[in-house]
Amino acid sequence: MFDFMNNPTVALIVATVVKGALLIVILLTAFAYMTLIERRVVAKIQGRLGPNRAGPMGLFQPVADALKMMFKEQMIPSQARAGIYVLAPVISVVVALCAFAVVPIGNNWSANSGVHSIWDPFIGDINVGLLWILSISSLSVYGIVLGGWSSGNRYSLLGALRSAAQMVSYETSLGLALSGVLMWAGSLSMVTIVHRQLDMGIWYICAQPLGFVIYIIAAVAEVNRAPFDLPEAEQELTAGYLTEYAGLRWSLFQMAEYINMITVSAVASTLFFGGWSLFGLTDGIPILSIVIFMIKVAFFLFLFIWLRATLPRIRYDRLMRFGWQVLLPLAALNIVITACTVALGGDRFWWISGVAGLLVVVVMLFAIRRQGILEGTHFSEVETGKPVLPHSVRLVTYEQEPELEQDEDSAPSVSQPPLARNSNTVQV
Amino acid sequence: METALPVFIYVTLAILFGLLVMAVTGFLGPKKPSPEKLAPYECGIQEIAAPKRRFPVKYLLTGMLFIAFDIEIVSFYPLAILLHQLKLFGLLELLVFMAVLMVGYVYVWRKGAFTWE
């Protein structure tokens, strides 16, 4: 019955189609339940209940949401460029799905790095795996920009522009932070990187703490999540590039965002946390490796939700300054440290770059607390000495506050000009 | 080719999925357009003027900076991978590369390209 499986190429194609379809279904299910988990967790953190009506513990909420979204009216705004407007969400989600192709979800079924089968739990082990992920995920900016630009709405356009500038700014730091891992691994293939970590006996987080911190910050910015969710800053831009979208097209954008989150978490666990390995626990039981990998990814996904519930949104000019003037030099420093250790020491001296990286992280934290690196925004002071907000965040022309000397008794708290807190000095 | 084929098949699957959803969106749901509904969202008021399809040059500048730096980073990857074998020569090469990159970086910083006003 399965005679056609004897031809290796046909067997490969069949196996890939099955695995690919399975992976897409898994990613979509993960997206659906991620929305539920996120709403529940954020609700718990904020002391609310969250969606708990549809089914036990609200477990059917994603199904209800999906059905509702599917039967919403789909329209094309009169000012939109119809073709691109329809295509943009699809680009987003296709790109997000594609990036996952090279991530090893578990160990080889034979649990032996030399023996490969077509049913191994990853789609393809190409020798430029990491480069594939980086290049594909930088394509995701196209979906957002085209969607925002084609909507014919000023909020969408602004959101799209912000998103583009933000994503490209943090992508440089992201790429540099990952090259530290490449130096240790000596390969771009994700499968090889995991096996190299097994050979060295450490997770690369031990050798690359600084790289990991930079990667995780840049990754949050890459997927436009809080506290870097400027493209969707609802107080300023309604919903950013999503403003004119509704129904299934809107869900496609959301789907892309969540799948990107999953991809970023999977890359973080693969590169820095040993992928599917856990202290030799998976030897001989390949199925356990998949479970371990999923737990690691789930931890990072929880981190994303935690961050969103905890941190306030960063202002746009500070966001750009942080990306270019803090993260990028730190990533360069990380590379120099790692390169010195790898070239002069070798595998046995991984702890040198680990300790040095950790030192830089600690110094960095103290510097941010003491010096207020995030605070040092420059404001153009006109001759009158009146503080002026940057153009990038200014919405209305700011008029001089009326003097309130007479009313000091009635309203003492108002006498302070509201923008006085935006001075360059920081009180510690 | 043997290793890249699965990835291409998977990409095809993803594109098929996207097209399927795009096709489905056209059929499901009611269709009752009206001029008010199709007007661009403007917080409930009538739009005064169409959005200018122009944007601050700052964004373009950021894009150009990105191209410059990202290409440097990508051309840096092969060196990073081969560092195990290149040892000291690779390290010196990398430091020279980094120094050149940093000269450009400091220049751009001093020119104020990273300061958003």
UniProtKB/TrEMBL annotation, chain A:
What name does the UniProt record give this protein? NADH-quinone oxidoreductase subunit H
Location (main, coarse): membrane
Its assembly, as annotated, is:
NDH-1 is composed of 14 different subunits. Subunits NuoA, H, J, K, L, M, N constitute the membrane sector of the complex.
Recorded name of the encoding gene: nuoH_1
User: What residue intervals traverse the membrane?
Assistant: 12-36, 82-106, 126-149, 170-195, 201-221, 258-279, 285-307, 319-344, 350-368
What role does it play?
Answer: NDH-1 shuttles electrons from NADH, via FMN and iron-sulfur (Fe-S) centers, to quinones in the respiratory chain. The immediate electron acceptor for the enzyme in this species is believed to be ubiquinone. Couples the redox reaction to proton translocation (for every two electrons transferred, four hydrogen ions are translocated across the cytoplasmic membrane), and thus conserves the redox energy in a proton gradient. This subunit may bind ubiquinone.
Q: Where in the cell is it found?
A: Cell membrane; Membrane
Q: What NCBIfam families does this protein's entry cite?
A: PRK06076.1-2
Q: Which branch of life, at top level?
A: Bacteria
Instruction: Spell out the molecular function terms from Gene Ontology.
Output: NADH dehydrogenase activity; oxidoreductase activity, acting on NAD(P)H, quinone or similar compound as acceptor; quinone binding
Statement: the UniProt record of this protein carries the keyword Membrane: yes
UniProtKB/TrEMBL annotation, chain B:
The free-text function statement in the UniProt record for this protein reads: NDH-1 shuttles electrons from NADH, via FMN and iron-sulfur (Fe-S) centers, to quinones in the respiratory chain.
Question: Which organism was this protein described from?
Answer: Dictyobacter arantiisoli
The protein's annotated catalytic reaction(s) are: a quinone + NADH + 5 H(+)(in) = a quinol + NAD(+) + 4 H(+)(out)
Q: Encoded by which gene?
A: nuoA1
Q: Which cellular components does GO assign to this protein?
A: NADH dehydrogenase complex; plasma membrane
Family of the protein in this entry: Belongs to the complex I subunit 3 family.
Q: How does the UniProt record describe the way this protein sits in the membrane?
A: Multi-pass membrane protein
Question: Under what name is this protein listed?
Answer: NADH-quinone oxidoreductase subunit
GO MF, one annotated term: quinone binding
Which InterPro entries does the protein's record reference? NADH_UbQ/plastoQ_OxRdtase_su3, NDAH_ubi_oxred_su3_sf
Q: Which residues form a coiled coil?
A: none
